[in-house]
Amino acid sequence: MAQRAVALTGVSRLGPGLWAALVAALVIGPLGAVIWRAGGLGALGAPDLAALWFTLWQAAVSAAVSVALAIPVARALSRQRFPGRSALIALLGAPFILPVIVAVLGLLAVFGGNGLVNRLGGGLGLPRMDIYGYHGVILAHVFFNLPLATRLILQGWLAIPAERFRLAASLDAPVGRLLERPMLRRIAPGAFTVIFVICLTSFAVALTLGGGPRATTVELAIYQAFKFDFDLARAATLALVQLALGVAAALALLALSPPDGFGAGLDRLHQRWDGQGHAAKVGDFGWIALAALFLLTPLAMIVLAGLPGLFALPPEVWQAALRSLIVALGATALTLALALPLATRAGELAGLLGVAVSGLVLGTGLFLVVQPFVRPAEAALPVTLLVNALMALPFVLRILRPELDAARADFGQLAATLGITGWALWRIVLLPRLRRPLGFAAGLTAALSMGDLGVIALFADGDHATLPLQLYGLMGAYRMEAAQGAALLLLGLSLGLFWLLDRGGRADA
Amino acid sequence: MLELRDIEIVQDDFRLTADCTFGAPITALIGPSGAGKSTLLNMIAGFFAPQRGRILWNGDEIGGQAPARRPVSILFQDNNLFPHLTLAANLALALTTRRPSSRQLAQVARALEQVGLRGMEPRKPAELSGGQQGRAALARVLLQDRPLMLLDEPFSALGPALRAEMLDLVARLAGEQGIAVIMVSHAPEDARRVADQTALVSEGVLHPPRDTGPLFADPPPDLRAYLGTG
């Protein structure tokens, strides 16, 4: 009875419908501007169809490889105890906030022409490995998504009740067939879909490691159509193709909704009786070592290679870093300002539009809207800020909404009897209850925005470049020492922002 | 005096009717789980409107008023205090949603003293025992200074001795301040202990309150069924 009454309680909300309409307009409006400016849609040529095919193909292969490799790694982490296990699992969350361009530089340091692997392989007389092309794109996607897949699947393993393992051990029953395979059949399709969707909208990886007729994604094709051909009709058509892909992927995600990937409880360890034999232990620790080596070596290379250049960075890198900080903090403030009134079911659906529409298209549309009033380069930073905010919105809403719903359910009636409504409700009740998720969401948004190399690449000139774009420019000019120093600076700023804001939400909470 | 006139509540497959007057200083609502006792309190508090009927306080219609405007304060089963606020801040919310004045802080201190929590203003709810939390919530309700107090089993998580002590405290303080009380309870002994009148909610009907002593001495069939004595 009390539950029914709670559901009927009217707690003041700041007109989420209005905010949802605003976000929808901000997302759909720019797309309309692109189509309007293009004067209609252009026909897709053979290269565009090739880009569409490559987008789907690389996303499928990247997702399949990530999930296939994640299964043994997650199983090893679920059934073995060792010092540093918690730290390793925590590190698996890092690639999500790692700037793509930094990770690419790290991968180049390991797998590039003069990278670690080629130097070691050359010494052994092995053929040289070339990272540029489709295999580089897939390698980078696996680097980013293997940790995510591992965490999703590990959560599935840890969700198997400990009693089931005890029962299997007492019966000497096969754990794999009885417990693990049914869990994988439930979890793996969702993990595959999440990663497939992420890889569909990949731009910075394709920009840096792909390109050419055999490794161009739809996003990259949109960029090329805008930047080099200024063929708005073709870009608009490609944008609609990307939108269709995004919507289809978002629907697939909803249908195959996997468990939350970043929730608590990943550090629990059931007592396991299987996997304790010598061969199983060697296999498990082999997988853990390989995964750790694959994920940590590029990061270590960034730190080692970046340190010498860090103290001799040209002034334009510091200026770009300042711009990036301002954009990241601005995007964070805007995302939170949009997310708080939007944290309802309808609002979350509106926020999802940000995932379906390409950031590049969004930015271009916004640029076309403001173009009559300002120069493209001058609009680059505000447009980037707005696009970053809209792109982060779905993640932030996913983090905030359950907590906000819980706060309303727990304290909505008490607040109503005390006459706490409107801004006072936010100030006294809701915001203090949301401190932790707000800190986490702010950290995530700031880190993602800090490392974003997307729409800024279209419009910014040297005076308006962000740090990722500056870094991309240094790489293009083969100023590798400065690039590595800038990469370390970007890594430090991204992780530092995340840490500071996340910690701010936890202090005294 | 609270009057419920020709009330009908319908929620999904649940239906409850009520037409009676609450005139005693303390009235207990008893009945089986799911009978609608808490629903009735929530309706009186203003968290939802009935499909039909009127709610009157001393003859004035209050059914259209927002919860904070009604002459009603309420103690819930749980979540009676905001866990992130100190006791002083929690209690001050009964007086203002802005920074409390020194006069209001003095009122808070007096209310805490009334319930035996003197000097505990800076503590957070998590630093208090269950009984102390109940006392603090009671102090907040007393500060609201409304003529009708609703208790939705706020002490059900406490042990029998502590629950009895809290009920005695409610009865004493409400009596001193002239506050009428309607309390929901699962436990007939709670009603016997403090309630002047008791009303049974069962089979979708709120039966009119009757004097507690005679009611339990000669229970009607519905109450006998609930007590398991029939």
Quickly count the helices of chain B: 8
Which value, in Å, is the CA radius of gyration of chain B? Answer: 18 Å
Number of helices of chain A: 22
Choose one word for the global shape of chain A.
Answer: globular
Mean pLDDT score of chain A, rounded? 84
Q: What percent of residues of chain A are in strands?
A: under 5%
Oligomer: heterodimer
CATH fold title of chain A: MetI-like fold
Main interface: chain pair and counts: A-B, 23 and 33 residues
Would you identify the CATH H-level superfamily of chain A?
A: MetI-like
| Fraction in helix of chain B | 25-40%
- pLDDT < 50 stretches of chain A: 1-14, 258-268
Shape of chain B: globular
| Order of helical and strand elements of chain B | EEEHEEEHHHEHEHEEEHH
Based on helices, strands and strand pairing, what is the structural class of chain B?
A: alpha/beta
First-residue to last-residue Cα separation of chain B:
33 Å
Average predicted local confidence, pLDDT of chain B: 92
Quick one: CATH class of chain A?
Answer: Mainly Alpha
Helix and strand pattern of chain A: HHHHHHHHHHHHHHHHHHHHHH
Beta-strand portion of chain B reads 15-25%
Largest sheet of chain B, described in full?
Answer: 11 strands, mixed
Architecture overview:
- The complex is a heterodimer of chains A (509) and B (230).
- Chain A has 22 helices and no strands.
- Helices cover 76% and strands 0% of the residues of chain A.
- Chain A is globular.
- Chain A has one domain (2-261, 276-505): Orthogonal Bundle (MetI-like fold).
- Chain A has helices spanning 2-8, 16-38, 46-79, 85-91, 100-111, 116-123, 134-158, 162-171, 175-200, 204-209, 218-227, 232-255, 278-310, 315-342, 345-356, 359-370, 376-417, 422-433, 435-450, 456-459, 467-476, 480-506.
- The relative contact order of chain A is 0.14.
- By secondary structure, chain A is mostly helical.
- In chain A, helix 2 packs across helix 16 (359-370).
- Residues 1-14 and 258-268 of chain A have low confidence and may be disordered.
- Chain B has 230 residues and is α/β, with parallel strands linked by helices.
- In chain B, 35% of the residues lie in helices and 25% in strands.
- Chain B has helices at residues 37-45, 87-92, 102-114, 130-144, 160-177, 188-194, 212-217, 221-227, and strands at residues 2-11, 14-22, 26-30, 52-57, 60-61, 72-75, 148-152, 180-185, 197-202, 205-206, 210-211.
- In chain B, strands 1, 2, 3, 4, 5, 6, 7, 8, 9, 10 and 11 form an 11-stranded mixed beta sheet that branches.
- Chain B is globular, with a radius of gyration of 18 Å.
- The A-B interface holds A 1-2, 4-6, 8-9, 410-411, 413-414, 416-421, 424, 428-429, 432-433, 509 and B 11-12, 14, 34, 36-39, 42-43, 45-48, 66-69, 72-74, 76-77, 79-80, 82, 84-85, 93-94, 97, 144, 152.
